[in-house]
Amino acid sequence: MRKHGKRVLRIAVLGLLVTAILPTLSRAETGTVRVEFTKGGFIIGVGGGRGVLTFRGRNYPFRVSGMSFGATIGGSTNQFVGKAFNLRKATDLAGNYAAMGAGGALAGGAGGVQLQNSANGVVLQLSGIKMGVELSAAMSGVQIAME
Predict the structure, then answer these.
(1) What is the CATH number of the domain that holds 108?
(2) Is 114 inside a domain boundary?
(3) Does 70 reside within a domain?
(4) HSE value, Cβ hemisphere, 13 Å, CA-based, for 126
(5) Which of 27, 32, 47, 78 could form a disulfide with 54 if both were Cys (CB 3.0 to 4.6 A apart)?
(6) Which residue range is the domain that position 114 belongs to?
(7) pLDDT tens digits for range 121-146
(8) What is the per-residue pLDDT across 64-85, written as a single tens digit (0 to 9) for each?
(9) Which phi and psi angles does 59 have, rounded to 5°?
């Protein structure tokens, strides 16, 4: 009888945990992001731009600003597209992101970056084209503000 009681208790606790966790996981959704970002610099790069988050069938414009430190030289305009993961609402996109990425451009090139907002849990995975003259392999901080 004792073993049976412990087993029932374990199953009940497991059921409560699954019930508590699954709704939280299922509420997180994915959006599509388009960003145009212009930057320039030597060692330290600065830049800014605009983008649009498409989430639940609606478009949400936002502004991007940032700074990078590392091997950065030149200037470029980047046109990125990708996904925003772990969104519960569109405003979750706003905040400060840490990024690591690399890319190069001599008139045209390719690049990619993954950014993470630890406060909201949002992850951006972006890739796209660069136009200009730039070489970079830098750590970056990016701030996104909804318009």
Answers:
(1) 2.40.128
(2) yes
(3) yes
(4) 30
(5) 32
(6) 29-146
(7) 999 998 888 777 766 655 577 899 99
(8) 998 776 656 677 788 899 999 9
(9) -100, 135
CA pair distance 123, 147, nearest whole angstrom? 20
Angle at 66 between CA 65 and CA 70, to 5 degrees: 160
Provide the pairing of β-strand 29-55 with 108-117: unpaired
- DSSP string for the chain: -HHHHHHHHHHHHHHHHHHHHHHHHHH-EEEEEEEEEEEEEEEEEEEEEEEEEEETTEEEEEEEEEEEEEEEEEEEEEEEEEEEEEESSGGGG-EEEEEEEEEEEESEEEEEEEEEETTTTEEEEEEEEEEEEEEEEEEEEEEEEE-
Q: How many domains does the chain have?
A: 1
Any domain includes 47? yes
Beta bridge partners of 129: 79, 110
Structure tokens at 67: 């700074």
Calculate Rg over the CA atoms of the chain.
Answer: 21
